[in-house]
Structures are given as structure tokens and as C-alpha cells.
Amino acid sequence: MEAMLGRTLNEMTRRERSDMMVMVADALEAVAEEAEERGDVQSAQNSMCLALTVRGCAVDLAEHDLRAAELLLEQGITFVANISERFERTTREEVEATLRH
């Protein structure tokens, strides 16, 4: 995995691209699970749909699909980052509210 850092999909081998897609799909599925546990059904569904799309793309990623795959990966990574940040902020606010009472 370390060799993938800082490289474009075009510079990666087919196996590395597939591994990158699977890694992002795994992260999206983890976020979906956490969202569901928190009662955020919409985020859970969105994350799972994106994870399944990324995972499906990883199975048969042709050379001519690289730009679409890059966009999909960017969306997945951004989604994970945004949801994780929101969950972290919510947790911090809940802890602060508990400490005030």
C-alpha cells in the first residue's frame, strides 16, 4: 500500500488500483456502519451505495475508465472525511454537554 501514496491511478499497476479502490470501499462501509449505529440512516445508505459502486468498479477497472475511477475515489475519500469530521464534532459536543451538567 505504501507504494501507492502520491501516485495517480495511471501510474499504478492494475493490482494497486484495485487495492486502492477496495481500501476506499472498506472505509466507506465502516462509515456506513458507524452512521447506522448513530441513527444516521441517510448517511449510512449513501455511504454503502458509494462503497458498492467503488467496489464494483475495482473488479473490472479498464485503462479507459481511469478518470471516472479517480472521480469516484475522490468522492469516496471526501465523503469519509466529511462524515468522520461530523461524527467527531458531534461526539465532542456531546461530551462537553455532559460535562456541563
Uncertain segments are none
Kindly state the mean pLDDT as a whole number? 88
| Helix fraction bin | over 70%
**Structural class computed from helices and strand pairing:** mainly alpha
Number of folding domains? Answer: 1
Main sheet characteristics? none
Would you list the SSEs in sequence order as H and E?
Answer: HHH
The total beta strand count reads 0
Distance between the termini: 46 Å
User: In angstroms, what is the radius of gyration?
Assistant: 16 Å
Strand % is: under 5%
* Number of helical stretches of at least 4 residues: 3
Shape: elongated
Q: Topology, please?
A:
Blueprint: H1 14-37, H2 41-59, H3 66-100
List its salient traits.
elongated, single chain, mainly alpha, 101 residues
